[in-house]
Write a structure and sequence with these properties.
The strands form 3 sheets. The chain has a 7-stranded mixed beta sheet, sandwiched between helices. A 4-stranded mixed beta sheet has the order 6-9-7-8. The chain is α/β, with parallel strands linked by helices. The chain folds into 2 domains: 1-66, no CATH class; 79-261, Rossmann fold, CATH 3.40.50. The radius of gyration is 18 Å and the shape is globular. The protein has helices at residues 7-13, 21-39, 66-77, 101-109, 122-132, 182-190, 206-210, 234-244; strands at residues 48-54, 57-63, 91-95, 114-118, 138-141, 144-145, 150-156, 164-165, 173-180, 195-200, 217-222, 246-250, 257-261. The protein contains 8 helices and 13 strands.
Length: 268
């Protein structure tokens, strides 16, 4: 949850992503503003621009709430996706790309790869397009992974990284977005090619991916939630690994589980 990003830690670590003293101060002030809005139940703000240095590159980055800062914190400060990543990748599929922090990471690691970034939240997708849409090697897909393809109801949570497919007990702002089954998504974007890295962080919809065939996937990095949004049982991943001929591994973050294929998919 975003509440774990306390101000002293944030000021000391995340602010250094700013590319100047004024940018670091702006990040700190926006964090305070977003914290106050959250306490008052005001939800997301309109996007505010900050100037960042990410992996040696300069970015104008748009943020709306503390969770936008939280994603930057996890990806670029704590190294959430430091783990048994493939040495090379031609195709990366990022499910739950949010506003593009992980896309920036994949581009840094795999300069020649095609990166397919899937994000259902309309506001996050607009910022994703702003941040990485000019990269010719990035393909953006505005859709939610679902049990089957077709329109689905999507909840836009006050904390942007908690948005998810609507559940029976949800309240809040909902919208209709395109839903794609995992098999239909793969058919649309992979064209029979192996997926060298599949990243999944989709707030409870992981179940629809894990229930599907993953035979084209070499490495999977998943932050797994069950249908209620809570952590999924470890036994479920054991079953997926056994079915797919994969093995589990851990990386720098306890929140991300890696599944590695014992025998790599054949390339065409």
């Amino acid at each position: 949850m975003v509440s774990r990003f306390h101000l002293p830690m944030f000021g000391a670590r995340v602010c250094r992503l700013g590319n100047s003293a004024s940018s670091r101060l702006r990040i700190l002030l926006l964090y305070v503003l977003f914290s106050l809005r959250e306490r008052l139940g005001r939800g997301r703000s309109h996007p505010r621009r900050v100037s960042l240095t990410l992996l040696g590159g300069e970015y104008d980055w748009w943020v709306r709430d503390r969770s936008d800062f939280g994603v930057l914190f996890e990806v670029f400060v704590t190294g959430e996706y430091v783990g048994p990543r493939p040495d090379r990748a031609d195709l990366v599929l990022d499910l739950g790309a949010h506003t593009g922090a992980t896309v920036v990471l994949w581009r840094h690691l795999y300069p020649a790869a095609e990166i397919v970034a899937v994000e259902p939240d309309p506001e996050s997708f607009r910022l994703l397009s702003e941040h990485v849409g000019r990269d010719a090697g990035v393909r953006l897909v505005h859709a939610a992974v679902a049990a089957r393809s077709g329109p689905v109801t999507f909840l836009q949570a006050d904390s942007s990284w908690e948005s998810h497919l609507s559940r029976d007990d949800d309240g809040g702002t909902t919208t209709s977005v395109e839903g794609l089954s995992f098999s239909d998504l793969v058919a649309r974007v992979a064209n029979g090619r192996p997926i060298d890295l599949l990243k999944i962080d989709i707030e409870g919809a992981e179940q629809w991916v894990l229930a599907s065939s993953l035979d084209s996937v070499s490495v999977l990095a998943v932050e797994v939630h069950d249908a209620t949004g809570g952590p999924i049982a470890a036994a479920t991943l054991d079953q997926v690994a056994a079915r797919e001929g994969m093995r589990q591994a851990r990386g720098a973050s306890d929140g991300v589980i890696w599944l590695l294929r014992n025998q790599l998919p054949a390339r065409g």
